[in-house]
Amino acid sequence: MIYLDASAAVKALVLEAETSAIVEAFGAGAEFVASRLLAVELHAVADRRSLDHGSADDLLDRVALVSLDDDTMARAIRLRSGLRTLDALHLATAIELSDVVTSVLTYDDELAAAARAHGLPLADLS
Protein backbone atom coordinates (compact mmCIF):
# COMPACT_ATOMS: atom_id res chain seq x y z
CA MET A 1 0.00 0.00 0.00
CA ILE A 2 1.06 3.55 -0.68
CA TYR A 3 0.82 6.03 2.19
CA LEU A 4 -0.93 9.11 0.80
CA ASP A 5 -0.42 12.52 2.36
CA ALA A 6 -2.44 15.67 1.70
CA SER A 7 0.12 17.29 -0.60
CA ALA A 8 -0.39 14.40 -3.01
CA ALA A 9 -4.11 13.83 -2.45
CA VAL A 10 -4.95 17.46 -3.16
CA LYS A 11 -3.41 17.07 -6.61
CA ALA A 12 -6.18 14.59 -7.44
CA LEU A 13 -8.72 17.35 -6.76
CA VAL A 14 -6.92 20.45 -8.03
CA LEU A 15 -5.42 20.49 -11.51
CA GLU A 16 -1.65 20.64 -11.14
CA ALA A 17 1.32 19.19 -13.01
CA GLU A 18 1.16 15.90 -11.09
CA THR A 19 -2.62 15.45 -11.26
CA SER A 20 -2.65 13.01 -14.18
CA ALA A 21 -0.10 10.68 -12.55
CA ILE A 22 -2.13 10.51 -9.34
CA VAL A 23 -5.43 10.01 -11.15
CA GLU A 24 -3.79 7.25 -13.24
CA ALA A 25 -2.51 5.53 -10.08
CA PHE A 26 -6.02 5.50 -8.63
CA GLY A 27 -7.40 4.29 -11.96
CA ALA A 28 -4.83 1.50 -12.14
CA GLY A 29 -6.02 0.18 -8.79
CA ALA A 30 -3.13 1.29 -6.59
CA GLU A 31 -4.00 0.80 -2.93
CA PHE A 32 -3.66 3.84 -0.71
CA VAL A 33 -3.71 4.25 3.05
CA ALA A 34 -3.65 7.42 5.14
CA SER A 35 -4.40 8.80 8.54
CA ARG A 36 -7.95 10.06 9.07
CA LEU A 37 -6.32 13.48 9.19
CA LEU A 38 -6.45 13.35 5.41
CA ALA A 39 -10.24 13.73 5.49
CA VAL A 40 -9.99 16.92 7.52
CA GLU A 41 -7.22 18.26 5.29
CA LEU A 42 -9.05 17.55 2.02
CA HIS A 43 -12.30 19.09 3.23
CA ALA A 44 -10.40 22.15 4.48
CA VAL A 45 -8.88 22.52 1.01
CA ALA A 46 -12.32 22.10 -0.53
CA ASP A 47 -13.59 24.92 1.69
CA ARG A 48 -10.67 27.24 0.96
CA ARG A 49 -10.78 26.66 -2.80
CA SER A 50 -14.56 26.38 -3.16
CA LEU A 51 -14.29 22.81 -4.45
CA ASP A 52 -17.01 20.19 -4.44
CA HIS A 53 -16.90 18.26 -1.15
CA GLY A 54 -18.32 15.26 -3.00
CA SER A 55 -15.07 14.98 -4.95
CA ALA A 56 -13.13 14.91 -1.70
CA ASP A 57 -15.46 12.22 -0.34
CA ASP A 58 -15.12 10.17 -3.54
CA LEU A 59 -11.34 10.26 -3.22
CA LEU A 60 -11.45 9.40 0.48
CA ASP A 61 -13.68 6.41 -0.29
CA ARG A 62 -10.74 4.95 -2.22
CA VAL A 63 -8.25 5.35 0.61
CA ALA A 64 -8.00 3.08 3.65
CA LEU A 65 -8.18 5.57 6.51
CA VAL A 66 -6.72 4.68 9.88
CA SER A 67 -7.53 6.37 13.16
CA LEU A 68 -5.04 8.22 15.27
CA ASP A 69 -4.60 6.92 18.78
CA ASP A 70 -2.50 7.84 21.78
CA ASP A 71 0.38 5.66 20.55
CA THR A 72 0.46 7.52 17.24
CA MET A 73 0.48 10.87 19.02
CA ALA A 74 3.28 9.72 21.32
CA ARG A 75 5.30 8.42 18.36
CA ALA A 76 4.92 11.76 16.57
CA ILE A 77 6.34 13.49 19.64
CA ARG A 78 9.21 11.00 20.05
CA LEU A 79 10.24 11.34 16.41
CA ARG A 80 11.36 14.94 17.00
CA SER A 81 11.21 15.27 13.23
CA GLY A 82 11.01 19.05 13.03
CA LEU A 83 7.93 18.65 10.84
CA ARG A 84 4.74 20.64 11.12
CA THR A 85 2.13 19.01 13.35
CA LEU A 86 0.01 17.26 10.71
CA ASP A 87 3.07 16.07 8.79
CA ALA A 88 4.56 14.65 11.99
CA LEU A 89 1.32 12.76 12.58
CA HIS A 90 1.30 11.47 8.99
CA LEU A 91 4.91 10.32 9.37
CA ALA A 92 4.15 8.58 12.67
CA THR A 93 1.18 6.83 11.07
CA ALA A 94 3.22 5.71 8.06
CA ILE A 95 5.93 4.32 10.35
CA GLU A 96 3.33 2.44 12.40
CA LEU A 97 2.00 0.92 9.18
CA SER A 98 5.43 0.11 7.77
CA ASP A 99 4.58 -3.60 7.63
CA VAL A 100 1.98 -2.82 4.91
CA VAL A 101 3.19 0.52 3.54
CA THR A 102 5.46 -0.01 0.54
CA SER A 103 6.10 3.70 -0.08
CA VAL A 104 5.02 7.22 0.82
CA LEU A 105 3.48 9.52 -1.77
CA THR A 106 4.13 13.14 -0.86
CA TYR A 107 5.08 16.33 -2.64
CA ASP A 108 6.21 17.93 0.61
CA ASP A 109 10.02 18.03 0.59
CA GLU A 110 10.35 18.06 4.37
CA LEU A 111 8.02 15.10 4.86
CA ALA A 112 9.77 13.25 2.03
CA ALA A 113 13.16 13.75 3.67
CA ALA A 114 11.83 12.62 7.06
CA ALA A 115 10.20 9.54 5.53
CA ARG A 116 13.46 8.57 3.82
CA ALA A 117 15.38 9.17 7.05
CA HIS A 118 13.08 6.66 8.76
CA GLY A 119 13.55 4.04 6.06
CA LEU A 120 10.31 4.63 4.17
CA PRO A 121 10.77 4.69 0.39
CA LEU A 122 9.06 7.38 -1.64
CA ALA A 123 6.51 6.49 -4.30
CA ASP A 124 7.47 7.42 -7.84
CA LEU A 125 4.48 7.85 -10.13
CA SER A 126 6.46 9.13 -13.10
Chart the SSEs and their pairings.
Layout: E1 2-4, H1 6-13, H2 19-27, E2 32-35, H3 37-48, H4 53-60, E3 63-66, H5 70-79, H6 85-96, E4 103-105, H7 109-117
Parallel strand pairs: 1-2, 1-4, 2-3
Descriptive overview:
The protein has 126 residues and is α/β, with parallel strands linked by helices. The chain has one domain (2-117): Rossmann fold (3-Layer(aba) Sandwich), CATH 3.40.50. It is built from 7 helices and 4 strands. It has helices at residues 6-13, 19-27, 37-48, 53-60, 70-79, 85-96, 109-117, and strands spanning 2-4, 32-35, 63-66, 103-105. Strands 3-2-1-4 form a 4-stranded parallel beta sheet. The longest helix is centred in the middle third of the chain and has 12 residues, at 37-48. Its EC number is 3.1.-.-. Toxic component of a toxin-antitoxin (TA) system. An RNase. It is an enzyme of class 3 (hydrolase).
Question: Which tags fit this structure?
Answer:
126 residues; alpha/beta; Rossmann fold
**H/E order of the elements?**
EHHEHHEHHEH
Structural class: alpha/beta
Largest sheet: 4 strands, parallel
- Separation of the first and last Cα atoms: 17 Å
Number of helices: 7
Q: Sum up the overall morphology in one term.
A: globular
CATH topology value: Rossmann fold
How many runs of DSSP E, i.e. beta strands?
4
Mean pLDDT: 95
Strands ordered across the widest β-sheet: 3-2-1-4
| CATH H level, superfamily name | 5'-nuclease
- Give the helix level as a range of percent: 40-55%
**Total tally of structural domains:** 1
- CATH architecture classification name: 3-Layer(aba) Sandwich
As a whole number of angstroms, the C-alpha radius of gyration is 14 Å
Low-confidence stretches: none
